[in-house]
Structures are given as structure tokens and as C-alpha cells.
């Protein structure tokens, strides 16, 4: 926020620095969000995410909680990354969002083949209404409406994927959510945040790169 305000104020003077409208607020926040928000992750960003992942997970079953999945582009991108990186593993992703309209569209997504990045294409099939993901990818994901501030019983997790979500909660809510991640994650489990978010404290070890903010649970 300090860096962004410095950029903002250097390009304006006097009262122009003040955020007066919703459009001003949107412009101020325009550099906050992670790459590829609301779309398939590019090959470059997918490679950066893959680099933050461990060489191997503790078991053959990889459990992921994706919070704030929107229309599902993020979830499907991450599922393809995991399938490509750990082809012999059983992957299960619980994808949640509190936008009913957005998440209701996710399971039936169709698209043109040229709109899909290269790392996703081995998992794409052609149907009557265009291209979609194959059954292995679809079966690995459970899309559900859920408000993250309410408890969600899940098995022990390997990854929590929650980009650009935590920052919009109060400090008390943030602390409660981070505590819940620590409870649900296995030792050395991973939290992937938005590029401008971080987890402080001794129980989190950074695995972050230039474009990806990731922290390993150090129980």
C-alpha cells in the first residue's frame, strides 16, 4: 500500500491524491491483483506457480482448498498444473466462492481451443458446444458455494489457494482464517496467496518468487 500510494501521489498533486469515487478506488487498486485474475493462467504464470510447489507431496492423494475461485478459471488452471507435475497422484480440489452466479457456471465451462494455454491442452476435449476439460480434470474438482468466514470441514490439506482474498477481510478475520489454514494444512503444506499478500510469523516459511507469493506451513 505504501509503494502504491507513493506512485499514486507522485502522478498527482493536491486534492487529486484523494480517492473520491469508486472509479478512483478501482484505479488505485488496479496494480494490487495477481496476474491472470478471472482468466486461465498463462504458461509463464503457471510455470512460476509450479516452481513454488514441492518436488513431492507426502502422499499420493493431493488435497487442495481453493478459496475465491470465481468462475473456475483459477481452479481449472491449478488442476492442470498439478496433473502435469504429479501425473500419478490423485488430486482433489474443493473450490469455493460466495458468488452463486459465478460458481454455478464453473462446472459447465466451454471455450475455444486457442483460448487455452499450452499446459492445459493435454486435458482438453472437444464436445458438441466447443471445448471443455476431460473427465479426469472435472472429477478432481468439487465446486461449491461457501462463505469462507464459516467453517468448512475438510480433510487434511496439502495446498490452500487463496489469491487476493485475505486482504479484503478485517485484521481479526484475517487472523482467524490464517489460524484455520494452520489447523487444516499438513506440515509443510502450502498456502498460495495474491502477489501482494504475505503470511508473517515463525510458522510460515516463504517459497515466494517474483510473481507468486507462497508460504510453507512449518508446524
Write the layout of secondary structure elements.
Layout lengths: L1 H9 L11 H7 L14 H10 L8 E7 L5 H13 L4 E8 L2 H6 L18 E4 L2 E4 L1 H5 L1 E5 L11 E6 L8 H14 E9 L10 E3 L6 E5 L2
Parallel strand pairs: 1-2, 1-6, 2-5, 6-7
Antiparallel strand pairs: 3-4, 7-9, 8-9
Helix pairs in contact: 3-4
Task: Give an account of the 3D structure.
- The protein has 219 residues and is of the alpha/beta class.
- It has two domains: 1-31, no CATH class; 34-217, Rossmann fold.
- The chain contains seven helices and nine strands.
- It has helices spanning 2-10, 22-28, 43-52, 73-85, 100-105, 135-139, 171-184, and strands spanning 61-67, 90-97, 124-127, 130-133, 141-145, 157-162, 185-193, 204-206, 213-217.
- The strands form two sheets. The chain has a seven-stranded mixed sheet with strand order 5-2-1-6-7-9-8, sandwiched between helices. It has a two-stranded antiparallel ribbon with strand order 3-4.
- Helix 3 (43-52) crosses helix 4.
- The protein is globular.
Spell out the helices and strands N to C: HHHEHEHEEHEEHEEE
Work out the number of β strands: 9
Number of discrete helical segments: 7
Can you summarize the main beta sheet?
Answer: 7 strands, mixed
Strand order of the largest sheet: 5-2-1-6-7-9-8
* Second rung of CATH, namely the architecture of the largest domain: 3-Layer(aba) Sandwich
Q: What is the end-to-end distance?
A: 30 Å
The gyration radius over C-alpha positions equals 18 Å
Q: What's the rounded overall pLDDT mean?
A: 93
Domain module count: 2
**Contiguous uncertain segments of 5+ residues:** none
What's the CATH topology name of the largest domain?
A: Rossmann fold
According to CATH, what is the class of the largest domain? Alpha Beta
The CATH fourth-level homologous superfamily of the largest domain: Vaccinia Virus protein VP39
Shape: globular
Helix content: 25-40%
Structural class: alpha/beta
Amino acid at each position: 500500500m505504501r509503494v502504491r500510494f507513493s506512485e499514486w501521489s507522485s502522478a498527482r498533486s493536491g486534492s487529486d491524491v484523494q480517492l473520491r469515487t469508486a472509479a478512483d478506488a478501482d484505479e488505485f487498486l488496479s496494480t494490487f491483483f495477481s496476474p491472470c485474475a478471472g482468466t486461465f493462467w498463462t504458461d509463464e504464470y503457471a510455470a512460476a506457480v509450479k516452481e513454488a510447489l514441492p518436488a513431492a507431496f507426502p502422499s499420493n492423494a493431493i488435497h487442495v482448498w481453493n478459496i475465491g475461485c470465481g468462475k473456475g478459471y483459477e481452479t481449472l488452471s491449478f488442476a492442470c498444473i498439478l496433473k502435469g507435475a504429479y501425473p500419478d497422484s490423485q488430486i482433489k480440489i474443493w473450490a469455493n466462492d460466495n458468488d452463486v452466479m459465478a460458481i454455478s457456471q464453473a462446472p459447465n465451462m466451454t471455450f475455444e481451443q486457442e483460448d487455452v494455454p499450452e499446459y492445459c491442452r493435454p486435458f482438453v476435449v472437444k464436445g458438441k458446444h466447443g471445448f471443455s476439460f476431460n473427465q479426469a480434470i472435472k472429477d478432481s474438482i468439487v465446486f461449491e458455494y461457501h462463505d469462507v468466514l464459516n467453517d468448512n470441514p475438510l480433510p487434511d490439506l496439502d495446498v490452500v489457494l487463496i489469491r487476493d482474498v485475505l486482504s479484503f477481510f478485517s485484521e481479526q478475520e484475517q487472523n482467524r482464517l490464517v489460524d484455520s489454514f494452520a489447523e487444516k494444512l499438513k506440515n509443510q503444506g502450502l498456502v498460495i496467496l495474491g502477489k501482494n499478500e504475505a503470511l508473517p510469523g515463525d510458522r510460515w516459511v516463504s517459497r515466494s518468487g517474483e510473481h507468486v507469493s507462497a508460504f510453507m506451513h512449518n508446524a
